Amino acid sequence: MPAIDQFVHDEQFLRLLRRERDIDLVQAALEIARDAQPDLNFEATRKTIRSAVASLTRPIAMAGSEISELNLLIGYLTEELNLHGDDECFESPDCSYLNRVLETGRGIPITLSLVYMAVANELGIPLTGVSAPSHFITQLETDQGVVYIDAFQSGRIMDRRECVQWLHELTELPVSEIRPTLKPASERQIIIRMLNNLKSLFGNREDWSSAWKVQMRLALLTPTSYREKRDLALLTLRAGRPGEAIDLLDDCLTEGSPEDRPMLQQCLKEAHRETPRFN
Questions:
Q1: Which end of the chain is less congested by CB atoms within 10 angstroms, N or C?
Q2: C-alpha–C-alpha distance, residues 98 and 48, integer Å
Q3: Separation of alpha carbons 40 and 156, rounded Å
Q4: How many domains are there within the chain?
């Protein structure tokens, strides 16, 4: 297993590892961002969120319905904070870092949704995350039924039928597979999805050092997952840490699937070959 020592200052991440509840998702997201920005000031992000809450408190209190509250929230976030989706964001790690999303107004679905949730929950609006296939959204239970919000599309509001149809067109998955996903995601699921987004992005860029940092978190969060252990072993080697990779690869060979063995054995030989060069 990867060492936990490098995360001793990540309070919310450690709470996730202990499977505690009521995780502060804003702080957990900022802890991830700090991996890439060691001097990150969390307070600046907190201040922006507090300012949004302060500006919306009175209008929300005067709203006549849950839908009216939601429209006020969306209006402020899209017009005052200028939050919007951008297809180019899927290639930029900045759009996965909460502080940069608030600084630039650009984000991917999950980080934009996280801002929506952070402000909404402070206002008493119980907006929850939904880990839908290919596209993270949020949902709100209202007296008119559950509605779904796509922060990436400037806060588009959909009823269940519209949401299912849109996701079907987006993913080409059967409706029967989409419907069960439209439920509140746990804090743990949200953070794991954020990490998987970064893992994929850094992998595509062949930024192995950054991918390794992300994979360390994933392996700790999912200690029983062979796939995450295997990926950690491979990324440790690619990140130029062959000595550390040897034990990880040995463990994977012990418990891994037969089809992985040739590849793992080849990587183990490479790790042994590279180790003297890095000593």
A1: C
A2: 11
A3: 31
A4: 2
Of 191, 198, 225, 224, nearest in space to 213 by CA: 198
Give the HSE-up count for residue 220: Cα atoms under 13 Å, Cβ half-sphere. 22
Q: Whole-angstrom Cα distance, residue 248 to residue 244?
A: 7
Containing structural domain, residue 249: 224-278
Residue 199 resides in a domain:
no
CA distance to 20, 73, 166, per residue, from 123 (Å): 24, 9, 29
d(CA 32, CA 55): 28
Q: What is the pTM of this model?
A: 0.94
145-150/156-159 β-pairing: antiparallel
Contact between 118 and 24 under an 8 Å Cβ cutoff? The reply is no
* Boundary of a domain, candidates 121, 155, 181: 181
